[in-house]
From TrEMBL:
<dbReference type="GO" id="GO:0005829">
    <property type="term" value="C:cytosol"/>
</dbReference>
<feature type="domain" description="D-isomer specific 2-hydroxyacid dehydrogenase catalytic">
    <location>
        <begin position="3"/>
        <end position="318"/>
    </location>
</feature>
<dbReference type="InterPro" id="IPR029752">
    <property type="entry name" value="D-isomer_DH_CS1"/>
</dbReference>
<dbReference type="InterPro" id="IPR006139">
    <property type="entry name" value="D-isomer_2_OHA_DH_cat_dom"/>
</dbReference>
<dbReference type="GO" id="GO:0030267">
    <property type="term" value="F:glyoxylate reductase (NADPH) activity"/>
</dbReference>
<dbReference type="GO" id="GO:0016618">
    <property type="term" value="F:hydroxypyruvate reductase [NAD(P)H] activity"/>
</dbReference>
<comment type="similarity">
    <text>Belongs to the D-isomer specific 2-hydroxyacid dehydrogenase family. GhrB subfamily.</text>
</comment>
<protein>
    <recommendedName>
        <fullName>Glyoxylate/hydroxypyruvate reductase B</fullName>
        <ecNumber>1.1.1.79</ecNumber>
        <ecNumber>1.1.1.81</ecNumber>
    </recommendedName>
</protein>
<dbReference type="InterPro" id="IPR006140">
    <property type="entry name" value="D-isomer_DH_NAD-bd"/>
</dbReference>
<dbReference type="Pfam" id="PF00389">
    <property type="entry name" value="2-Hacid_dh"/>
</dbReference>
<feature type="domain" description="D-isomer specific 2-hydroxyacid dehydrogenase NAD-binding">
    <location>
        <begin position="108"/>
        <end position="286"/>
    </location>
</feature>
<dbReference type="InterPro" id="IPR050223">
    <property type="entry name" value="D-isomer_2-hydroxyacid_DH"/>
</dbReference>
<dbReference type="InterPro" id="IPR036291">
    <property type="entry name" value="NAD(P)-bd_dom_sf"/>
</dbReference>
<dbReference type="Pfam" id="PF02826">
    <property type="entry name" value="2-Hacid_dh_C"/>
</dbReference>
<dbReference type="GO" id="GO:0051287">
    <property type="term" value="F:NAD binding"/>
</dbReference>
<keyword id="KW-0560">Oxidoreductase</keyword>
Length: 323
């Protein structure tokens, strides 16, 4: 059995695949494959382990022989799941193991925006750090503030735990469904989207990218937020409208922002967000720790192994193919 992998993955996952007796080919070029290249590579493969590739209808229809597609991510917005399901190709993802690391990144971005850390760092590089000024470079304290989580799933819960534990923040959330476990564990309160915007000192986005969440944080949403609020997005860049975010920051409708995800990725080096005060931008490193990336590669390998054995994937995103 042959497995094509669209990126070099950690040894931990690779070993599981090799120990299972599969022949593995990794794409080592530091660029994404085109759809045509991916179709060509997959002609040889029985399974695909995909990191960061767009798996569209054209690719899936040309690769309907694949017995399994394992994503090296929890997000699956870059896969045409409807087509994969129609073609009965099981698709697996990597939930849970990356929740802590990604929440750590959200926390880092929240803190960095609150204390203007990225901007102040640049003043050292440019030689503009002159002397200690008691009235300048002032940030925000978060103790006792309100954290608003948009999408209180696995990562959202981890972010809420960190903010409650560190700063005693009150947690409110808006979700597709109530999360009663989190309400009990964290004392989190369910609110409407409008109340989330109005009441939060920090809004942290943790939903999947879907037609309902795309562009959700737009001019209208930023207008309803507190002028002292910080907007954090570690989910997907398309959930906020970048132009509207830049205007909201320039017009001081909100105070700051922390982004691990942008639209497009990579963000262009001249993007104004990279030099604005109270803004912190990272290059999609939410899950990027050794421990977490090892664990993700193992889950992806487990999905491949189950799929190639004809078994149900341990982490399927289209479980309906089994019914
Ligand atoms: N920056 C990074 O490196 C990473 C980003 N992510 C992103 O984070 C997202 C969330 O991951 P998890 O917490 O593991 O997923 P999850 O499925 O546990 O949580 C997502 C939550 O959002 C809610 N939701 C979905 N649609 C909604 C809507 N229209 N309105 C309100 N709530 C809605 C769901 O009910 C669920 O509670 C992923 O889909 C991925 O896009 C995930 C890992 C790393
Ligand atoms: O898992 C995901 O969805 C990511 O964005 C990277 O870990």
């Amino acid at each position: 059995m042959n497995v094509f992998i669209t990126r070099v993955i950690p040894e931990a996952g690779l070993k599981l695949l090799k120990d299972a007796g599969f022949t593995v080919k990794q794409w080592t070029e530091k660029r994404k494959l085109s759809t045509e290249e991916l179709i060509e590579e997959c002609k040889w493969a029985d399974a695909l382990l995909s990191a960061g590739q767009q798996l569209n209808r054209e690719f899936l229809e040309a690769s309907a022989h694949l017995k399994v597609i394992a994503l090296n991510s929890v997000g699956y917005d870059n896969v045409d799941i409807e087509t994969a399901t129609r073609l009965k190709i099981p698709v697996g993802n990597t939930p849970g193991v990356l929740s802590g690391a990604t929440a750590d990144t959200a926390f880092l971005l929240m803190m960095s925006a609150a204390r203007n850390a990225f901007f102040m760092h640049k003043t050292i590089i440019s030689g503009d750090w002159d002397f200690f000024e008691p009235t300048a470079n002032l940030g925000k304290e978060l103790t006792g503030g309100t954290l608003g989580i948009f999408g209180l799933g696995k990562i959202g819960v981890e972010m809420a735990k960190r903010c409650k534990g560190a700063f005693g923040m009150k947690v409110i959330y808006h979700n597709r469904n109530r999360n009663e476990d989190a309400e009990k564990e964290l004392g989190a309160t369910y609110v409407s989207f409008e109340e989330l915007l109005k009441q939060s000192d920090v809004i942290s986005v943790h939903t999947a990218l879907t037609p309902e969440t795309e562009g959700k944080f737009n001019a209208e949403a930023f207008r309803q937020m507190k002028s002292s609020a910080i907007f954090v997005n570690t989910a997907r860049g398309k959930i906020h409208n970048e132009e509207d975010l830049i205007s909201a920051l320039n017009e001081k409708l909100i105070w700051g922002a922390g982004l691990d995800v942008t639209n497009p990725e990579p963000m262009k080096p001249g993007n104004p967000l990279l030099t604005m005060p109270h803004v912190a931008v990272l290059p999609h490193i939410g899950s990027a720790t050794e421990t977490t990336r090892d664990a993700m590669s193992k889950l992806a390998a487990e999905n491949i192994i189950a799929g190639l054995k004809g078994e149900r994937l341990p982490f399927p995103v289209n479980p309906e193919i089994y019914s």
